[in-house]
Amino acid sequence: MEIKFNSDERKRIQQGIKEKYKVVAINPEGKFSYPTGRAGLEGQKYDPEILRALPEDVLASYCGVGNPFSLGPVTKGEAVLDIGCGAGVDMFVAAIMVGPEGRVIGIDLISEMLNRARTNLEKTSFKNVTFREGSPEELPFPDRIFDVVISNGVFNLITDKAKALKEVFRVMKSSGRFLLADQILTGDTQADSKSMVENWAR
Amino acid sequence: MLNEAGFADVEWVAETGFNSSPATKGVLFRARKSGISGIGRVEMEPKSALSKY
């Protein structure tokens, strides 16, 4: 069941997310209850050969909750969208997989994260990776253009998940794959809305 | 929710072991856009469709 928030609550949630992740953009270490950076990537069994191909300080900015690439292959020439791309580490992994003939586009709400992603991109030689600021609830892309959509630890932060999922569906090609790593609630969700708003991004 | 959005072959594949709190669990999902949903529609060529992004 999805909780419906009013516009003020949505704004406060988004503000909380922005405040948290502009700090994470500088350095994710110690901001989460699980390993980040190289330790997180290795813990999630990302391909060691791909990790060796990326600069160490780029890897250090990883703060995902799982490995979307463990869910199936991303192949040469494909177009990949990363929802909530953060500092871009998953995008660079995808860029290696799709090769120069493929495309990788990332979208994120947090300008500080996108700045970190652009700084990271400058440390690589990828020419097929681009970023856009925007909301997963209103993807700024036409219908049916991505072969693969990935997302890592972002959907749990989205207030209107149903709308965002419909957007993912819309931009995927008819045989497209959605590879999702995320957090789900396992306990009771009886918390009052004030508490949920205040703790949404924690 | 993935099914409601139109996805097919929705699978909860595994837990990741990366849990952000005692009340949450890291998980991996995989889903596919049904081929049926694309029948009669023209797929855009990614290279040209994505050139402006």
At a glance:
Chain A is 37% helix and 18% strand. Chain A has 8 helices and 5 strands, in the order ααααβαβαββαβα.
If you had to describe this structure to a student in words, what would you say it looks like?
The complex is a heterodimer of chains A (202) and B (53). Chain A is α/β, with parallel strands linked by helices and 202 residues long. Chain A is 37% helix and 18% strand. Chain A contains 8 helices and 5 strands. Chain A has a 5-stranded parallel sheet with strand order 3-2-1-4-5. In chain A, helix 1 (7-24) runs parallel beside helix 8 (193-199). The longest helix of chain A has 18 residues, at 7-24. In chain B, 8% of the residues lie in helices and 36% in strands. Chain B has a two-stranded antiparallel ribbon. In chain B, a hairpin with an 8-residue loop joins strand 1 (7-15) and strand 2. The model of chain B has no long low-confidence stretch (mean pLDDT 83). The interface between A and B is large, with 54 and 39 residues.
List the helices and strands and how they pair.
The complex is a heterodimer of chains A (202) and B (53).
Chain A: H1 7-24, H2 37-43, H3 48-52, H4 56-59, E1 79-83, H5 89-98, E2 103-108, H6 111-122, E3 129-133, E4 146-152, H7 161-171, E5 172-185, H8 193-199
Parallel strand pairs in A: 1-2, 1-4, 2-3, 4-5
Helix pairs in contact in A: 1-8
Chain B: E1 7-15, E2 24-33, H1 46-49
Antiparallel strand pairs in B: 1-2
Q: Note the total helix count of chain B.
A: 1
Unreliable segments of 5+ consecutive residues of chain B: none
Kindly state the percentage of residues in helix of chain B: under 10%
Q: What low-confidence regions of chain A span 5 or more consecutive residues with pLDDT below 50?
A: none
Would you report the number of β strands of chain B?
Answer: 2
Mean pLDDT of chain A: 91
Largest sheet of chain A: 5 strands, parallel
Total beta strand runs of chain A: 5
SS-based class of chain A: alpha/beta
Lateral strand order in the biggest sheet of chain A = 3-2-1-4-5
Strand content of chain A: 15-25%
**What's the story with the biggest beta sheet of chain B?**
2 strands, antiparallel
Give the class of chain B from helix and strand content and strand pairing. Answer: mainly beta
Radius of gyration of chain A: 16 Å
Number of domains of chain A: 1
Calculate the terminal CA-CA distance of chain B, rounded to whole Å.
29 Å
Radius of gyration of chain B equals 17 Å
Shape of chain A: globular
The helix-strand sequence of chain A is: HHHHEHEHEEHEH
Oligomer: heterodimer
Number of helices of chain A: 8
